[in-house]
Amino acid sequence: MSKTRPSHQLRPATERAIVIFVTLIGLVVATGAAVRLLVIADWDPSTFLKVGEDAGPIIDYAEDRLGRVSLASSFGHDGKFFFIQANDPFYLDPDAHASLLDRPTYRAQRMLYPTVASAFGALGPAAIVWALPLVNVLAIAGGTWLTAELARRRGHSPWLGLFFSLNVGLLMELFIDGAGALAWALAVGAVLAIETGRLGWATAATCAAVLTREAMILVAIGLFVGIWLTQRRRLWQMIFLPAVLAACWWLYVSLRLPSGPAAQVQEIGIPFKGLAIAARYWIDRPFDLFVAVTVLLICIVFAVRALRGRDLLAWAAVGFVALLPLLSEQVLIHYFDVTRAVAPVLTAYPLLLAGSTRPPVGRDADLIAGDVVA
């Protein structure tokens, strides 16, 4: 028999009001984090781009379009590349823009975030530099709403939605104009769509997540496997359509862009090699060591519980645990990159701990049954 609503739970109208309130808190958290960084940078939005002081031509590129820009240490981080992509999201003039990408074809796979931030190429650089963090603020607020609504529909507290907006890995994405917050919000939306019987929307959200960040193919695989193992349904479109769209886009950018001398994928390598190298750095960085060990322990416990359960959000996130041993040292050395790498786990685990789910509702509910408790 299905798990029934506990007698102490609130009425649906009250729950929905809490979902809205939690969403507003998520918006305040994301906005507050962004404003704090802006205040430190004297309200210069280029601080989100993380243009490194050793970035050379990219500094000239940014200053030609924005004037003086805020510089980060070393080579900076992802935001500078998304800024370049947003100025030419369809790679119509790769010599003027994409030629500055360190790994053009690899970077170009993450197309949806800069495309949305540029309003599909309609905005200029001065607007884009503000739009990139704005998209992330809205993604965190939207992800908070989706997580809270998912929890509510499962019969749990909507306050669990705050594990999206308070997810340190997703906040780090905001600070560097990264694509992870938008990608994971779309993935949570896919899970919510499945559990409410909207398979078309679920497939569309999964496709969008993969086009935002290529690693989200792990979400597609996880959802397919989770549904097949728990419900014995093979929903091939959950893998097939995202993979086909990603392949088509990759083919397009491969024809438009030079591959460049650098290896296109540097974040994945020999199993455990990156962990072994990063461990040497952690010894001299106590905080990075603490975060890394904590994250690893959380991921191990999470994976064990996820693989033994029926929680689709957990199945969507568990692939990122499997990816950990393959990550290179450049991802694992610093705490902010470690938390970004496993950010889906940090949102999914609290909902997994909350327990079983209600049956789904909607027109496709006959195809996807929810969790049933004997």
Polypeptide structure, described:
The protein has helices at residues 12-40, 57-66, 79-86, 104-108, 112-117, 125-153, 162-165, 168-175, 180-195, 199-212, 217-231, 237-256, 273-282, 286-308, 312-323, 329-332, 335-341, 343-354, and strands spanning 51-52, 71-72. By secondary structure, the protein is mainly α. It has a domain at 12-264. Strands 1-2 form a two-stranded parallel sheet. α2 (57-66) links the parallel β1 (51-52) and β2. It is globular and about 55 Å long. The N and C termini lie close together (6 Å).
Through-space gap between termini: 6 Å
- In round numbers, the mean pLDDT is 88
Q: Low-confidence parts lasting 5 or more residues at pLDDT below 50?
A: 1-8, 359-374
Molecular shape: globular
SS-based class: mainly alpha
